[in-house]
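User: Fold this; tokens only.

Assistant: Input:
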Amino acid sequence: MLTLLRNKTQLDRLLPLAILALAAFLRLFDLGQPNSLVFDETYYVKDAFSLLVNGVELDWQSDSDANFAKGDTSGLTNDPSFVVHPPLGKWLIALGLLVFGPGNPIGWRIVVALLGIATVWLGIKCAERIFEGKIWANLAGFFLAIDGVGIVLSRTALLDQILGFFALLAFYFLLRDLEDSSRYRPWLIAMSISLGLATAVKWSGLYFLAVFALYRVLVSAKRNYVAHRSIESETGELDKKLWLIPTALEAAKSFVLVIVPAAISYLLSWLGWFLSPNGWDRNYAENNPATGLAGVIPKPLQSLWHYHEEIYGFHANLTSSHPYSANPLSWLFMLRPTSFFWDERASDCAFDSAETQCVSAVTALGNPLIWWGAVLAMSVLIGSWFRTRDRITSLLLIGVIAGYVPWLFLMNRTVFEFYVVSFSPWIILILVFGLKTWYENSANATRAKYLITSFVSLTVLVSLFFYPVWSGMWISYDFWRIHMWLPSWI
């Protein structure tokens, strides 16, 4: 018996490490392929280099991508660049450039890849606290490790995986705060800072900030209400003020502890812009000072506010067509994945033949079995929630509400399916919770275990099958074509 317990303890310790090693391999293997700037890397990587040498984003000469990929950065000008995302994500990408240099694709992507690996680890840790066990937590981490959305976005120097990391980190801190009875609320402050950093990567972090803060306030209100009813049942009657006043005070305290640290961490991400005279709109208020009460605001903050108004105007009016734009209603079904990269050559690739050319493609497509299974699980759990008000379902849905629902109100915007990476951990947690619930309520546990094992095995085979089009491997055109299960994937 002691041997069995010892083996189980060792397995519980080693299995998460094995999952993490798998995630690392899938994200780091041949990370320099493609060896050119992919999709929006053309903006973020070059902006990262500009931040590294100037502290702010400056403009580049047109057609400078090819030279930059060779390490030639002479295309950088001295003109301010109008960028539409906060700087933190690009500062993080810049760390890789600092180590590897601008001409090495590994340097462009290494930090994002490491954060993608860390996201898998955070997913396991969050699942352990939610499911109160190792088995289902490890399954959640395993699905995160092998899912294509996380793999592709971790292998590409875009901002969305960085946003997803900070959002999940905030969720982990939220879980710790829900368990904590300390009056000083260190975990809530940590959640706030993480959400401020998420917003400093992309403004969609604000959705997570709003939803997580509201959830925390509602949980506190419910706890106070339950305590109130308990006292009322014992004493017969109790003034409602004894419930309402503590609830209002707790809400106000939570609001301050969330908003203030988040705002400070967000503003600190703009430090390079504040310290440099060359940033876009940096000196706007010097020539256009605010009047009235707004005039007492320091001019750098006035200039930053005007810059943010311009950024908002850009996002609000972004309706230009793009061949891979995708309606948010289709995101969860993986109906229009984004093609990040495409290249062709005559020969020398896997499954090569004289009748077909070779291609290298990167498509931000999730594992279909994982995503379609998660949609089914979510439908069942939401339907059940209206009857049971299940706490775990409520907790898992806040990530989907924060990361997905706001986009449903922005259908006229030019948006892309790969945005799902910011909330994909919650999609996978919902899938695992659905499997766990079904297993625990199954009349035949042996059959349920067999079916779940079969499903997991199939997801592994599907990920192995799709990995070449997630990593840009050189394969024959015919082999690539059989990966395009739906016409809308092309």
